[in-house]
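Quick illustration, no need to memorize.
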Amino acid sequence: MLKYLKPNSGSVIVDGKNIDDLNNKEIARIIAIISQVISVNFDFSVEDIVMME
């Protein structure tokens, strides 16, 4: 769905349109993705981040 991989055969149709014909902005309007993997690259708590403001 994110166009990272091309299908070996056939096509991906989203909302009646071939996904290859849609740009990333159009795909984002149609599809919502919430990552289940969260990686934090810094050693701050939520409180630390809020206090930085």
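Residues 13-51 form one domain.
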